[in-house]
Amino acid sequence: MNPAQVFSIVNAMAALQWLLLIVMPKWKVTQWLVNHAAVPLLLSAIYCIYIAVFFSIHGGGFGSIQEVRILFSNDKLLLAGWVHYLAFDLLIGFSIVKSARASAVSHWLVIPCLALTFMFGPCGYFLYQIIYKIKSSQ
Known about the structure:
Number of strands: 0
Distance between the termini: 52 Å
Structural class: mainly alpha
Strand content: under 5%
Radius of gyration: 17 Å
Helix content: over 70%
């Protein structure tokens, strides 16, 4: 399978999980997926395979922005980086849903946080923390 095909598959998996989190957070399938972190685990396995097999590019590394640029100039490592984002953003989404449930934060307030986390990771987490702090102070 080429990187473009894997990209399409992992994006579809992540998008479906995000849709379930946003639209049907209390459905037993969604809760099972969240409690077992099934999709992030699968994404993590894909990430590990790509890193283990393809992480050897002359001049690439994490020591400077130039080294990171060299790494991401390779489609397979760019894909690995993307899968990394998908897995970790989903874990943050799970954390938001669990925290909101435990703190009785309305799911209607959580939806924009989840959508923002899906698209821009830390921005959604930041918004949720603002909402959580306001809710906690009341």
